[in-house]
Structures are given as structure tokens and as C-alpha cells.
Design goal:
This protein is an alpha+beta fold. The protein has four helices and seven strands.
């Protein structure tokens, strides 16, 4: 596997959207300029973005790795690259079970209400909307949490 971790290009846009939809990630706000992708000989096999919200907050999100490439450190490499030049606080909304995983980058769990307004709103949309959809589809509810990485943990 010769994997290149690189900034996304306009040509990657449909591939990013396809990966996200395949993993049931919210398909809105998936704009290629914010993404880092994992490219395996021209095939996009992973992606992650850093959203900048109108309130100034930044949120790491839309992390996805194709099933055949999981367990090979692709997600770690994507996050490393996406955070490499990020200054200031960065937040992530993810499953509570990932507390230890995100700790390696200096993230710590915070109360959703302590997050900036746009991140807090995204949390509640995911918590309520995602929870309702999971129940309607007979799937397990993914219990979410908000994690923050402060500038001093870079």
C-alpha cells in the first residue's frame, strides 16, 4: 500500500461525498478545500475536514476511511496531517467511546454546553437527529460527546 496523505482537490469532491454517504456521515458541508484525503494510487480511501464556523470555532469532522483500509493507521495519519497546522482550539464531536483515541492529540471531553454555539448546535443535531434515526432504523444509538483540543496541546 502506497498511501499519500494530501490536501483535497476539486477533482476529489465527488469521491469525498461518496465516501461520506457510504458511511452514513451527514452529507452537508462536505466542501473539498477543507479536506485532507488518503490517496491510494489515485483512489480516495479516506478523508477528514476542518470546518470553520461563523462563530470562529473550528471542528474536526467527517472522518471516514474505506472499510478495506481500516486498522492500518489511515485515520491517525489523516488526523495528524489535518491538525499539523491548526492553531487555536479545535473541537470534535464523536462517539463517547473514542475518548482515549483522541487523547493522543490533546483532546479532552467537555460538556456540550461549554462548546462554541455552532459546535454545540451540531452536537444537538447529531444527538437528537442521529439518535432518532438510529431508533427508527433499529440500530444502536451512537452516544456522542464533544472533545476540545486547546492551543497549548499542539
Amino acid at each position: 500500500m502506497t498511501l499519500l496523505i494530501r490536501p483535497a482537490t476539486v477533482d476529489d469532491q465527488p469521491k469525498i461525498v461518496s465516501l461520506a454517504r457510504g458511511e452514513r456521515i451527514k452529507p452537508t458541508g462536505l466542501e473539498w478545500p477543507r479536506f485532507i484525503v488518503a490517496d491510494d494510487d489515485g483512489k480516495i480511501v479516506g478523508a477528514v475536514q476542518l470546518r470553520e464556523h461563523p462563530d470562529g470555532s473550528r471542528e474536526l469532522g467527517s472522518l471516514v476511511v474505506a472499510p478495506a483500509f481500516r486498522g492500518r493507521g489511515v485515520a491517525t495519519r489523516l488526523i495528524d496531517r489535518r491538525l499539523a497546522d491548526a492553531s487555536g482550539p479545535v473541537l470534535v464531536i464523536t462517539g463517547r467511546a473514542f475518548d482515549d483515541y483522541y487523547r493522543r492529540w490533546g483532546f479532552r471531553r467537555i460538556r456540550p454546553i461549554a462548546a462554541p454555539p455552532f459546535v454545540c448546535a451540531n452536537y444537538w443535531l447529531g444527538y437528537l437527529g442521529g439518535g432518532l434515526l438510529a431508533l427508527l432504523r433499529g440500530r444502536a444509538v451512537n452516544h456522542l460527546a464533544v472533545f476540545e483540543r486547546s492551543p497549548s496541546t499542539r
